[in-house]
Design goal:
Distance between the termini: 23 Å
Family: Belongs to the UXT family.
Protein name: Protein UXT like protein
Organism: Cyphomyrmex costatus
Order of helices and strands: HHEEEEH
CATH topology: Helix Hairpins
Structural class: alpha+beta
Number of domains: 1
CATH architecture: Orthogonal Bundle
GO cellular component, one term: mediator complex
Number of strands: 4
Strand content: 15-25%
Shape: elongated
Radius of gyration: 25 Å
Number of helices: 3
InterPro entries: Prefoldin (IPR009053), Prefoldin_subunit_alpha (IPR004127), UXT (IPR003994)
Strand order of the largest sheet: 1-2
Length: 146
């Protein structure tokens, strides 16, 4: 095989391994983080809905709080009608439960759109990898029906 072709094949393989597969791993990591965020918001939404349906928001409730290293203490929340939500950059704002549900629904929609965009980016990167592999096969003269 021609040394120039071997060099091109090596460059393509290096690009796949060093750039595209690394990009794919980063995108997958971001996707997992966004999915975890959505799950957390859905769980919070469920808790708020349960509070509203059982009137716990007015009567309060008892719970156990993890103070670190799986050590729990019992806590009593006398008024659960308001909640603090992280709005970003470590800032928390107090909302009523109804207001919190509106904010949570907006955040879930935003995260779902980001997930769609990440999935498209992952598909695009996978397509680039496949395209380069086809080009490598063409250069090697071993192209089969794909």
């Amino acid at each position: 095989m021609d040394p120039q072709i071997k060099e091109k094949i090596l460059q393509f393989e290096t690009f796949i391994n060093d750039v595209l597969k690394e990009d794919l791993a980063k995108l997958a990591e971001k996707l997992n983080a966004k999915n975890a965020d959505v799950a957390e918001f859905l769980q919070l939404k469920s808790v708020i809905t349960t509070f509203q349906n059982t009137n716990v928001e007015k009567t309060g409730f008892k719970t156990k709080v993890d103070i670190g290293n799986n050590f729990f203490i019992q806590a009593h929340v006398p008024d659960a009608s308001k909640i603090l939500l992280d709005v970003g950059l470590g800032h928390y704002i107090e909302f009523t439960l109804d207001e919190a549900l509106v904010i949570i629904n907006i955040r879930i929609k935003l995260l779902e759109q980001q997930i769609v965009n990440l999935r498209k980016a992952i598909a695009r990167t996978n397509a680039h990898i496949k395209l380069i592999l086809i080009a490598i096969r063409d250069l090697q003269g071993m192209r089969e029906n794909v």
